[in-house]
Amino acid sequence: MIARFLLLVTIALVLAGCAALRDMEAERAVKPEETAPPGEAADQQARLEPEVQPSRVEVPAPLLAGDLERLLVYFEQVKKLPAAELGREHDSARAAFSRTQSDFDRMRLAMVVSIPNTALSDDQRAVELLEPVVKNQNSSLRGLASLMSAHLQERRRLESGMHSLQQNVQGLQQKLDALMSLERSLIDREQSSPARKR
After folding, report:
1. Distances from the Cα of 69 to the Cαs of 37, 66, 73, 101, in angstroms?
2. How many Cα atoms occupy the beta-carbon half-sphere of 27 within 13 Å?
3. pTM score, two decimals?
4. Considering 7, 99, 101, 190, which has the largest number of Cβ atoms within 10 A of its Cβ?
C-alpha cells in the first residue's frame, strides 16, 4: 500500500513537471514565428508538412525529461490502452528490449507485463526483468525498479494470501454443507421414527 502510494505521488509530481516543461517548449516554439519577417514566415509555413499520426503511446523526448520521468509518463499512457493496442505495445517493447538490452527498454517491457487484469499480466516475469536493474548500483533507474519490484512482490504475496483464504473458505463451506446434510438426515430419521412406532 505504501509502495503504491509513493508510486502515485511520484507519477503525479512527474506529470506536473512534464506539463510545465511542455508549456515552456510551446512558448519557445511560438516566439520565432511571431518575430520572423513575413518572407521567412511564408518559407516556414511552406516547409511544414502534414504530420504522421503519432502512436497512442508516446515516450516523451529525452530533451524534455530524463529516463525516469519518461517511463512514468509511459506507464500512465500504456495502462489505459485497450487489449489489442496493449498487445501491439507489448510486441514493440519486447522487440526494443531484444534489440538494445538497455535498462530503459527492460523497464518498459516490465511495465507492460506488470499491468494487472490483462492477458499479458505476468508479475513473475516483471520481477525477473527488473532484477538486473535493481542489482545495478550505477543505474539511474534503480530506484524505480526497486519500487516496482517491491510493489509486485507485495501484490503477489497478497494474491497468494487471498488464494489461501479462498481455499479455507471453500473448505469451511464444504464442512458446513456436510453438517447441514447430516442435520437434515437426522431430522428425517426423527420424523420417520414416530411413524414406525405407530
Report:
1. 37, 5, 6, 20
2. 6
3. 0.52
4. 7
- Rounded Cα distance, 149 and 158, in Å: 14
**Angle CA 20–22–24, to nearest 5:** 70
Q: CA-CA distances (angstroms) from residue 6 to 10, 128, 147?
A: 6, 22, 9
Q: What is the DSSP string of 80-139?
A: T--HHHHHHHHHHHHHHHHHH--HHHHHHHHHHHT-SSSTT--HHHHHHHHHHHHH-TT-
For 119-146, b/e burial (b = at least 16 CB within 10 A) is eeebbeebbebbeebbeeeebebbebbe
Residue 63 cell numbers, joined: 530533451
